[in-house]
Specification:
Elements lengths: L17 H14 L1 H17 L6 H19 L12 H35 L5 H28 L6 H30 L2 H16 L11 H7 L2 H14 L9 H31 L1
Helix pairs in contact: 1-5, 1-10, 2-5, 3-4, 4-5, 4-6, 4-9, 6-9, 6-10
C-alpha cells in the first residue's frame, strides 16, 4: 500500500432497518443469556448475605401487607364485599401478583443504575440486564407462591386445572410489567425524577386496581377497571389461580396484543438509546 492511499472505516449499520434492529435485539438476548444469569446469582447472593433475615424478607412483606387489610376488613373499616374465597388468601394472592407486576416494572431501571459502573467500563449486550431482571422477578414470585401452599391447605382449596392456568396467566402480568419497565428505562436513565414519579403513581394506582377488593360491576371504579390493563391481567391471573374464574376478563386479548407491541417498542428504544446514554454519562 502506497503512502498516498487512505483507508476509511465505517461504523456497522446494524440498526439501519427495522429487521436488522430486531435481529440485533434477538442476538443481544442470546449473547447476554449467560451473563444475565451470572449477574442474577451475584446480586442475589450479595443481597441476602448482608441481610439478617435473608429470604424471609420476600415472605414477610406480602404477609404484613395482607395482615393489614385482613385486620381492616375484620374491624369493619374496609367493606370489600363477596370474594368467593376466604379473604386472607384472596388478598394475599392479589398482593403477591401486584408485587410481581411492580417488581417487573422497576427491575430494568434498577438494574441499569446498579450496573452503571460496569457499563462504563465493559461493553456487553445490554439485554443481559433485562435477563437478570426476569430472573429476579421470577425468583421472588416463586418464594411468594410457596406461601400460598399452606393457605390452600388450611382453607381446603384443592388445586385444579384452573390453578395451572393461573400460573400461566402470571407470565403476561410479568411481561407487561417488564415491557413498561424497559420502555421507561432510557428516560429514567436520563432523569432521576422518573423513578420517583413512577413509585408515587403506583401507590395511588394500587387502590384503583382491584387488589384488596373484588372488581366492581358499576360506578367509577368499574369504568376504571375496564380500561386498566393491570386490573385485567392481575384479576384474571388471580381468579384462575383461586378457581373463581369462569371466563377471561373482557379486553384480555387487547391486553396481550398491547403487551407485545409495548415490548417491541420498548426493546427497540432500549437498544438504540442505552449505548448513547452510557457513552455520554461516561464522558
Amino acid at each position: 500500500m502506497s503512502h498516498d492511499e487512505k483507508t476509511i472505516y465505517y461504523s456497522a449499520k446494524e440498526n439501519s432497518s427495522l429487521f436488522q434492529l430486531l435481529l440485533s435485539i434477538f442476538r443481544g438476548f442470546k449473547e447476554g443469556a449467560d451473563l444475565g444469569k451470572r449477574l442474577f446469582i451475584r446480586d442475589t447472593m450479595a443481597l441476602y448475605r448482608q441481610s439478617a433475615l435473608g429470604l424471609l424478607w420476600a415472605i414477610i412483606i406480602p404477609l404484613a401487607q395482607t395482615l393489614v387489610w385482613v385486620f381492616l376488613s375484620k374491624g369493619g373499616v374496609l367493606n370489600v364485599g363477596e370474594t368467593g374465597v376466604p379473604y386472607p388468601i384472596y388478598v394475599l394472592s392479589g398482593v403477591m401478583i401486584w408485587r410481581s407486576f411492580v417488581d417487573a416494572m422497576n427491575a430494568p431501571l434498577t438494574m441499569f443504575h446498579s450496573s452503571k459502573p460496569i457499563l462504563k467500563k465493559i461493553n456487553f449486550p445490554k439485554e443481559a440486564l433485562i435477563i437478570t431482571s426476569i430472573y429476579k422477578v421470577l425468583f421472588n414470585l416463586g418464594i411468594n407462591l410457596l406461601v400460598l401452599i399452606p393457605l390452600f391447605i388450611y382453607y381446603g382449596l384443592m388445586p385444579g386445572i384452573g390453578t395451572l392456568l393461573g400460573l400461566l396467566a402470571l407470565i403476561p402480568v410479568i411481561a407487561f410489567g417488564l415491557a413498561i419497565g424497559v420502555l421507561i428505562t432510557p428516560f429514567g436513565a436520563l432523569f432521576t425524577d422518573v423513578q420517583k414519579f413512577i413509585m408515587s403513581f403506583m401507590q395511588l394506582f394500587f387502590f384503583l386496581t382491584p387488589i384488596i377488593y373484588p372488581a366492581r360491576t358499576e360506578g367509577l371504579l368499574a369504568q376504571l377497571t375496564v380500561y386498566n390493563p393491570a386490573a385485567i391481567s392481575i384479576c384474571t391471573a388471580r381468579d384462575l389461580l383461586l378457581g373463581t374464574a369462569d371466563h377471561l376478563a373482557a379486553g384480555y386479548g387487547i391486553f396481550l396484543i398491547s403487551t407485545v407491541l409495548i415490548s417491541i417498542v420498548g426493546l427497540m428504544l432500549y437498544r438504540i438509546s442505552l449505548p448513547i446514554i452510557i457513552e455520554r454519562s461516561g464522558s
